[in-house]
Amino acid sequence: MTTLPDDPFELFGRWFQEASASELNDPNAMSLATADAAGRPSVRIVLLKDVDPRGFTFYTNTLSRKGRELAANPHAHLNFHWKSLRRQVRIDGAVEPVTPAEADDYFAVRPRASQIGAWASIQSQPLGDRATLEGRVAEFTAKYEGGDVPRPPHWSGYRVVPSRIEFWQDRANRLHERYIFDRDGSGWVRSMQYP
């Protein structure tokens, strides 16, 4: 690539569209790295559910390990890896909660079984056995039978507001290219780096 757009979200949109056409499963899968108050990191895969100029949004149980870590240390790192395209996108930034209205809107379009699962799951907490979880699913299925499933108070979304976005492109002989966008006030500063 010889020229870069001024806006990293434009480039991300192009790459994400290409990944959506080429990746077999979950092109919106991204690694989410968080750290606790002492700085101990943890990483897991979550799914991107929205992206706009404000940032990159995912949803989860706020009582989960990731939710507790984000409450203690509201910064995160995201990494998309699209193996078929030999590309990665790395995103560093602060994390903010989505609004209750945004969380309600997204929860309302989830499959009903996933809505029930949000109530039944005690994420990141030990359970005696799978039967206990299945019993909780049955309990909440019966509770909300015949009506809408409301969003649990402990289920919401987070937006990673990027301060840096790095686009990584594999090249021959490990002479890879990296396109860096660093936030500068309301705009972005672009640069290119090689290995």
UniProtKB/TrEMBL annotation:
<feature type="binding site">
    <location>
        <position position="106"/>
    </location>
    <ligand>
        <name>substrate</name>
    </ligand>
</feature>
<dbReference type="InterPro" id="IPR012349">
    <property type="entry name" value="Split_barrel_FMN-bd"/>
</dbReference>
<feature type="binding site">
    <location>
        <begin position="44"/>
        <end position="49"/>
    </location>
    <ligand>
        <name>FMN</name>
    </ligand>
</feature>
<dbReference type="InterPro" id="IPR011576">
    <property type="entry name" value="Pyridox_Oxase_N"/>
</dbReference>
<feature type="domain" description="Pyridoxamine 5'-phosphate oxidase N-terminal">
    <location>
        <begin position="17"/>
        <end position="141"/>
    </location>
</feature>
<keyword id="KW-0288">FMN</keyword>
<dbReference type="GO" id="GO:0004733">
    <property type="term" value="F:pyridoxamine phosphate oxidase activity"/>
</dbReference>
<comment type="pathway">
    <text>Cofactor metabolism; pyridoxal 5'-phosphate salvage; pyridoxal 5'-phosphate from pyridoxamine 5'-phosphate: step 1/1.</text>
</comment>
<feature type="binding site">
    <location>
        <position position="114"/>
    </location>
    <ligand>
        <name>substrate</name>
    </ligand>
</feature>
<dbReference type="InterPro" id="IPR000659">
    <property type="entry name" value="Pyridox_Oxase"/>
</dbReference>
<dbReference type="Pfam" id="PF01243">
    <property type="entry name" value="PNPOx_N"/>
</dbReference>
<feature type="binding site">
    <location>
        <position position="88"/>
    </location>
    <ligand>
        <name>FMN</name>
    </ligand>
</feature>
<feature type="binding site">
    <location>
        <position position="49"/>
    </location>
    <ligand>
        <name>substrate</name>
    </ligand>
</feature>
<feature type="binding site">
    <location>
        <begin position="174"/>
        <end position="176"/>
    </location>
    <ligand>
        <name>substrate</name>
    </ligand>
</feature>
<comment type="function">
    <text>Catalyzes the oxidation of either pyridoxine 5'-phosphate (PNP) or pyridoxamine 5'-phosphate (PMP) into pyridoxal 5'-phosphate (PLP).</text>
</comment>
<comment type="pathway">
    <text>Cofactor metabolism; pyridoxal 5'-phosphate salvage; pyridoxal 5'-phosphate from pyridoxine 5'-phosphate: step 1/1.</text>
</comment>
<feature type="binding site">
    <location>
        <position position="168"/>
    </location>
    <ligand>
        <name>FMN</name>
    </ligand>
</feature>
<keyword id="KW-0560">Oxidoreductase</keyword>
<dbReference type="InterPro" id="IPR019576">
    <property type="entry name" value="Pyridoxamine_oxidase_dimer_C"/>
</dbReference>
<keyword id="KW-0285">Flavoprotein</keyword>
<feature type="binding site">
    <location>
        <position position="66"/>
    </location>
    <ligand>
        <name>FMN</name>
    </ligand>
</feature>
<comment type="similarity">
    <text>Belongs to the pyridoxamine 5'-phosphate oxidase family.</text>
</comment>
<feature type="binding site">
    <location>
        <begin position="59"/>
        <end position="60"/>
    </location>
    <ligand>
        <name>FMN</name>
    </ligand>
</feature>
<feature type="binding site">
    <location>
        <position position="110"/>
    </location>
    <ligand>
        <name>substrate</name>
    </ligand>
</feature>
<dbReference type="GO" id="GO:0010181">
    <property type="term" value="F:FMN binding"/>
</dbReference>
<comment type="subunit">
    <text>Homodimer.</text>
</comment>
<dbReference type="InterPro" id="IPR019740">
    <property type="entry name" value="Pyridox_Oxase_CS"/>
</dbReference>
<feature type="binding site">
    <location>
        <position position="178"/>
    </location>
    <ligand>
        <name>FMN</name>
    </ligand>
</feature>
<feature type="binding site">
    <location>
        <position position="65"/>
    </location>
    <ligand>
        <name>FMN</name>
    </ligand>
</feature>
<dbReference type="Pfam" id="PF10590">
    <property type="entry name" value="PNP_phzG_C"/>
</dbReference>
<protein>
    <recommendedName>
        <fullName>Pyridoxine/pyridoxamine 5'-phosphate oxidase</fullName>
        <ecNumber>1.4.3.5</ecNumber>
    </recommendedName>
</protein>
<feature type="domain" description="Pyridoxine 5'-phosphate oxidase dimerisation C-terminal">
    <location>
        <begin position="155"/>
        <end position="195"/>
    </location>
</feature>
<feature type="binding site">
    <location>
        <begin position="123"/>
        <end position="124"/>
    </location>
    <ligand>
        <name>FMN</name>
    </ligand>
</feature>
<dbReference type="GO" id="GO:0008615">
    <property type="term" value="P:pyridoxine biosynthetic process"/>
</dbReference>
<keyword id="KW-0664">Pyridoxine biosynthesis</keyword>
